[in-house]
């Protein structure tokens, strides 16, 4: 029984970080119907920026590097939307073109990281050491910290979307872009904001997981694939669905890794996705309609 609880806790703590990555991808798709294939590369970018500030450069504390990187990630999201995505919107086959462009952007970011930092992997020391033992169950303070930070980020985003005027504008654009434009909502500004938030979220996940996993220039594809499966399972465009699906799949992954092996984790995810889509083709919580 104690072993099962430890596996469950491990899955839940991992699920919080998966949730941050997936919610960012879901947010952009929900607002603009854009599937950003560079999402995983931006995850790696966040990890490498943190590594440079903490280990490879000025040697800042991780929490300070974290605060300095946030505006950089937000600005990166705005630049991507305005310089790369916005010119494509409204053209013929713009959704397919956007996929191709963001896929190319992913390769550019990956190669840029390799040129600047080299092809090797990096790691970052956690900002808190030690572990907590309760009733025979042990969890590191760092994993507990990233669990709390991840939930705080997702909770703040959900509060922003549901309780603020600007958040309601984002929801309005996601539901009816033309109608939102007609009532005076600046649709382009909403797109820039959602991209900025999305890049911040995935970059933050890269920073939080850097002390746990190695940071690699090519390491963004696994987080992207997992985020994509989570978003589809939860319902394309549904941040609530991404939240629930992230924890379901993370707990499933924890049990599969422990009882069968790590190589079976992704097949188990895909099997779960197939089963759910057979019953609910739109995912657990449907989609936002334009």
Automatic annotation (TrEMBL):
UniProt keyword Transport present: yes
InterPro entries linked to this entry: ABC_transp_permease, BCAA_transport_permease
Membrane topology: Multi-pass membrane protein
UniProt keyword NADP, yes or no: no
TM annotation in the entry: 12-30, 60-84, 96-117, 141-161, 195-214
Taxonomic superkingdom: Bacteria
Cell compartments where the protein resides: Cell membrane
Keywords linked to the UniProt accession: Amino-acid transport, Cell membrane, Membrane, Transmembrane, Transmembrane helix, Transport
Family as reported in the entry's similarity comment: Belongs to the binding-protein-dependent transport system permease family. LivHM subfamily.
Name by which UniProt lists this protein: Branched-chain amino acid ABC transporter permease
């Amino acid at each position: 029984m104690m072993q099962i609880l430890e596996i469950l806790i491990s899955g839940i703590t991992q699920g919080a970080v998966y949730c941050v990555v997936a919610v960012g991808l879901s947010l952009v798709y929900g607002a603009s119907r854009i599937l950003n294939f560079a999402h995983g590369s931006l995850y790696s970018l966040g990890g490498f920026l943190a590594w440079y500030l903490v280990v490879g450069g000025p040697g800042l504390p991780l929490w300070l590097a974290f605060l300095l990187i946030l505006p950089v990630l937000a600005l990166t999201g705005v630049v991507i939307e305005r310089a790369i995505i916005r010119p494509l919107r409204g053209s013929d086959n713009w959704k397919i073109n956007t996929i191709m462009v963001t896929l190319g952007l992913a390769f550019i970011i990956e190669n840029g990281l390799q040129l600047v930092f080299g092809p090797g992997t990096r790691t970052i020391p956690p900002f808190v050491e030690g572990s907590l033992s309760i009733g025979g169950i042990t969890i590191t303070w760092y994993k507990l910290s990233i669990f709390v930070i991840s939930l705080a980020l997702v909770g703040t985003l959900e509060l922003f979307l549901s309780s603020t005027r600007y958040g309601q504008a984002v929801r309005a654009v996601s539901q009816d872009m033309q109608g939102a434009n007609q009532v005076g909502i600046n649709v382009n500004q909403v797109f820039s904001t959602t991209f900025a938030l999305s890049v911040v979220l995935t970059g933050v996940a890269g920073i939080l997981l850097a002390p746990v996993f190695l940071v690699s220039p090519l390491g963004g594809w696994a987080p992207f694939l997992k985020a994509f499966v989570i978003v589809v399972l939860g319902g394309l465009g549904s941040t609530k669905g991404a939240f629930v699906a992230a924890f379901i799949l993370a707990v499933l992954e924890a049990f599969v890794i422990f009882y069968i092996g790590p190589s079976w984790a992704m097949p188990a995810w895909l099997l779960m996705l197939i089963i759910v889509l057979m019953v609910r083709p739109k995912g657990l919580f449907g989609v936002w309609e334009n």
